[in-house]
Amino acid sequence: MLILSKADILKVVDWRAAVEEVGQAFAALAAGRANVPLRTHFPLESQEGLLLLMPGYIEGPASSTGPEGQLAVKLVSIFNHNPARGLPLIYGLVTLFEADTGRPLALLEGATLTAIRTGAAGGAAAKYLANPQPSRLALFGTGVQAETQLKATLAVFSDSLREARVVGRDSLKTARFAERITAETGLPVRVAGGAAEALEGAEIVVTATTSYTPLFEDAMLAPGAHINGIGSYQPSMREVPGETVSRARLVVDAREAALHEAGDVVIPLQEGLIGPEHIYAELGEIVLGTRPGRAGFEPGEISFFKSVGNAAQDVAIAAHIYQKARAAGIGTEVEMF
């Protein structure tokens, strides 16, 4: 059994390939080839903790080079007192199994894997929904998710993307983030003075925060902009104005999850700005070609991809990272059985 740490995973991640693998996972989900049960919640109220269990299975090859079936389960613990103890709020592990025998193949550090698959999902959405030659990106947030979203999107549009403008709550942290990402990627990342400055002329907008209120005004968006809404993951959280959601071509990772978990969708529903039918498509339908992407939109139309995450993404990216690590001889082999 192969053990892959955070450092091991980061050594082998290929953002362009990760975007492709996660895109194919969405396609499998839309085609009915993915079995993804509702996640199991196990609260530990005395500890203010929560344990989440998320299994998933993708039938057949998830991509042209993938194995015949992929099976994995993710465990996530969330303990609210941890930050005060100097510990991470969230820990995660992903176990990958051989799909036809159930033999455990690998144990992967889950937080890094989750960040990669979420970034890759945003990259896949931008690939199919954004204008084909974007030059400017607006980024809200300076955390891990903001970083992975930017790197995945840059992998898709490396030939055209020329600048990113970032907005963060902490000016010093934001400046350090911009400097580090510029050095790591070669893409100029500039600190914006506010939402209006960040959004001016931005063809792609990424929101990766924990905000409960919209981060910008609808009128600030450039015509034809595409938005990836990544940060809000509870019904009470929102990053995007209801006016924007109501006029945008709305695409989600999974309809039922978005209608029940995504505040950016739930709140406009409650306000009567949209109905359930406002969801244009699941991203997998667009990857499959059963619904048109950007090429089928009206000129200047806004598009909005709302993601709350799906275990199919974890399965696909865990299998991909495992194959890359095996090929590169990276990781720690353990004789467990």
Short description:
The protein has about 325 residues and is an alpha/beta fold. It is about 35% helix and about 25% strand.
How would you portray this structure in words?
By secondary structure, the protein is of the alpha/beta class. It folds into 2 domains: 2-114 and 312-333, ornithine cyclodeaminase, domain 1 (2-Layer Sandwich); 122-309, Rossmann fold (3-Layer(aba) Sandwich). The chain is 36% helix and 23% strand. It has 11 helices and 16 strands. Strands 1, 2, 3, 4, 5, 6, 7 and 16 form an 8-stranded mixed beta sheet that branches. Strands 10-9-8-11-12-15-13-14 form an 8-stranded parallel beta sheet. Strand 3 (40-44) and strand 4 form a beta hairpin. Helix 2 (15-30) packs across helix 4 (144-156) and helix 8 crosses helix 9 (263-270). The longest helix is centred in the middle third of the chain and has 20 residues, at 110-129. The radius of gyration is 19 Å and the shape is globular. It starts with a strand and ends with a strand. The relative contact order is 0.19. The mean pLDDT is 93.
